[in-house]
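Input (structure):
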């Protein structure tokens, strides 16, 4: 368990397009275990551990998180903003945020008219982003513009708390969890000679279109590509298991199966879990998974893709929840998968 690495990742601000603080955390961690670390023009960080064979495997977790961006500052110094990625506006009123202006961090509060002053119709409606603003305590526009400007990016208030045992909550398990796993994979295999060339990627801009996985996969040209992301846990009130399946915290990482997943990769991931005695869950994915596995699978002439996911409660909120047990289970499962493959492994689907 590398708690310091994870804590540094989740507290680093990294909305889509602004990932480099988190990428610096990743670079500093993987340098100790990789033969080569590079950052491409898109901002993806690619750590390469050389193998004895020719096969190339790409493992990818995306470093970007959802966030906000300053759109306009009015004459009174109040800030109007827009979303980076998928944001539920009903969760925003009253929360504290960090605004990043160069190297300066400015605290703000997302404001909305108090419930006492809302009419009956407005009380029944969820707010829109256009109904909200950020208050940094500025007396007017001129004062505000000395501290922030249009285009500055914003995150929910950072921090990490342990709730019970290995269960923690933070703003950005989606998807610092995946970055943690692909980084720790290199540490797990640091003293082993692997047949496969491992390309451990902390990708960018997943939340706005799987963009970093697409460019990094094109450059690496992998034979196998495994995305590590979070998935919706269904073990809390309001989640319909009849429709969404049964995924729970602390029952292990989930392995997806479906058209986005190469069937031989799926079987080998299960075998890896069984060999390593790792608890895992199976998740049905009847279409594109909405993860980096989508982009990786259809790169160039096609890649044998797989997806390992960490159960996550309250996704895309300021307080997501995961368990370190599932995180470290994913590391061990992925490491065993790498040990199972060599140049003779055939990923062509056959009856």
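Output (sequence):
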């Amino acid at each position: 368990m590398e708690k310091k690495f994870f804590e540094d990742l989740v507290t680093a601000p990294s909305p889509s397009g602004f990932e480099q603080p988190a990428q610096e955390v990743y670079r500093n961690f993987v340098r100790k275990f990789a033969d080569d670390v590079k950052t491409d023009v898109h901002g993806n960080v690619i750590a390469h551990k050389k193998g004895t064979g020719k096969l190339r495997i790409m493992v990818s977790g995306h470093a970007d998180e959802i966030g906000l961006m300053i759109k306009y500052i009015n004459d009174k110094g109040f800030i109007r903003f827009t979303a980076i990625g998928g944001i539920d506006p009903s969760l925003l009123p009253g929360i504290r945020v960090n605004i990043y202006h160069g190297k300066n961090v400015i605290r703000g509060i997302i404001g909305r008219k108090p419930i006492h002053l809302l009419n009956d119709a407005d009380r029944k409606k969820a707010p829109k982003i256009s109904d909200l603003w950020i208050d940094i305590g500025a007396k007017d526009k001129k004062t505000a513009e000395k501290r922030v400007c249009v285009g500055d990016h914003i995150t929910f208030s950072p921090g990490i708390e342990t709730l019970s045992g290995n269960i923690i909550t933070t703003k950005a398990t989606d998807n610092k969890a995946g970055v943690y796993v692909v980084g720790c994979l290199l540490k797990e295999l640091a003293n082993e000679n692997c047949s496969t060339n491992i390309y451990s990627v902390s990708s960018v801009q997943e939340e706005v279109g799987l963009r970093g996985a697409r460019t990094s996969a094109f450059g690496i040209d992998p034979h196998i590509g495994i995305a590590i992301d979070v998935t919706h846990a269904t073990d809390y009130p309001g989640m319909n298991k009849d429709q969404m399946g049964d995924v729970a915290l602390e029952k292990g990482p989930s392995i997806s199966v479906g058209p986005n997943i190469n069937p031989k990769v799926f079987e080998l991931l299960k075998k890896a879990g069984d060999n390593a005695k790792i608890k895992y869950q199976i998740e049905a994915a009847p279409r594109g998974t909405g993860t980096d596995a989508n982009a990786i699978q259809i790169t160039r002439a096609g890649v044998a893709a797989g997806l390992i996911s960490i159960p996550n409660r309250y996704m895309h909120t300021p307080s997501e929840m995961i368990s370190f047990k599932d995180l470290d289970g994913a590391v061990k499962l992925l490491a065993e998968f790498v040990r199972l493959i060599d140049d003779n492994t055939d990923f062509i689907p056959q009856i």
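Notes: The chain has two domains: 3-65+171-340, 67-156. Residues 3-65+171-340 form a domain with the Aminopeptidase fold (CATH 3.40.630.10).
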